[in-house]
Amino acid sequence: MPGRPAYRTSPQAIVGMPPGVPYIVGNEAAERFSYYGMKAILVVFMTTLLVGRDGSPAPMNAGEAKFWYHAFSAAVYFFPIAGAIVADFVLGKYPTIMLLSLVYCAGHAALALDESRTGLAIGLGLIAVGSGGIKPCVSAHVGDQFGPSNESLLSRVFSWFYFAINLGAFVSSLLTPWLLDRFGPGWAFGVPGLFMAAATVIFWLGRHSFVHVPPSGLGALKDACGPEARAALARLTLVYCFVAVFWALFDQTGSSWVLQAAKLDRTFAGIEWLPSQVQAVNPLLVLAFIPLFSYVVWPALERIAPFPPLARISLGLFLAATSFAIIAAAEWRIEAGARPTIGWQLAAYAVLTAAEIMVSVTCLEFSYTQAPLALKSIVMGLYLLSVSAGNLLAAAVNWLTTGVDGQPLVTGTTYYLLFAGAMLAAAICFVPVAAFLPTRRYIRCEE
Question: What is this structure's pTM?
Answer without folding.
Answer: 0.75
